[in-house]
Design brief:
By secondary structure, this protein is mainly beta. The chain has one domain. A hairpin with a 4-residue loop joins strand 3 and strand 4. The two termini are about 30 Å apart.
């Protein structure tokens, strides 16, 4: 909340602001001894890859993107 209250006066009031939730893959295909790495389904490539799911919440005004929170997930 403090990040958004800091950035809000810097943007024009005509701009629409939004939160963006992104779940991307963080692939570790050649790592054999990485802790908690598992097969994850990548929706963009339509196949299973070894690695982690990177879940991210960000704030955007259409021009900038500010990450607010993230989590590395394993299956």
């Amino acid at each position: 909340k403090s990040v958004i209250t800091f950035l809000r006066p810097l943007t024009d009031d005509a701009r629409k602001t939004t939160f963006i939730v992104d779940d991307s893959m963080y692939t570790r295909s050649n790592a054999k001894k990485v802790a908690c790495a598992a097969l994850q389904y990548d929706h963009a490539k339509k196949k299973y890859l070894k690695g982690f799911r990177y879940l991210q919440l960000g704030w955007s005004d259409g021009n900038s993107f500010v990450p607010v929170a993230f989590s590395l997930l394993s299956g």
